[in-house]
Specification:
Elements (H helix, E strand, L loop, with lengths): L8 H10 L3 E8 L4 E5 L3 H22 L11 E6 L2 E9 L2 E8 L4 H15 L8 E2 L2 E2 L1
Antiparallel strand pairs: 1-2, 1-5, 3-4, 4-5, 6-7
């Protein structure tokens, strides 16, 4: 079950405070619905969550082409002009996405995201939905 969004605030703030350059953090379901956010505007977080759903699906398809892979996406990092985008699997049907400027150090970001997911991954679970309803 998804925890109340407010319960994620302090956890996401801790990640933001621990890594310089973070602009926005979004926790999302596999089908692209925003569960929680820190930083940025709500509409931008919703757009990012929707885009991440497609990206995680694409990454999973690519992972399936790697011999001996289980076909699951663990992390995607995209370097863009002005910064980075990170997407990490965070629990069953849940993901953690971060937008950061160019001052963010990718190794530190990856480690801190992984630490957060390990600590709270069980709480970052979104039940599957069918036709907009929880299954």
């Amino acid at each position: 079950m998804i925890q109340q969004r407010a319960n994620f605030d302090w956890m996401l703030k801790e990640l933001s405070d621990g890594v310089p350059g973070i602009q926005q953090i979004v926790v999302l379901s596999a089908d692209g619905l925003r569960i929680a956010r820190y930083g940025g505007e709500p509409d931008a977080a919703d757009r990012l969550a929707a885009a991440c759903a497609g990206l995680q699906s694409l990454a999973g398809a690519v992972a399936g082409e790697i011999p001996r892979s289980d076909g699951r996406m663990r992390m995607v990092i995209i370097e863009i002009d002005g910064g980075y985008f990170y997407l990490m699997s965070a629990g069953p049907n849940a993901y953690l996405a971060v937008l950061a400027d160019q001052t963010a150090e990718p190794g530190l970001m990856s480690n801190r995201m992984r630490d957060l997911v390990v600590r709270i991954g069980a709480h970052l679970t979104s039940p599957p939905r069918r036709n907009g309803q929880t299954v």
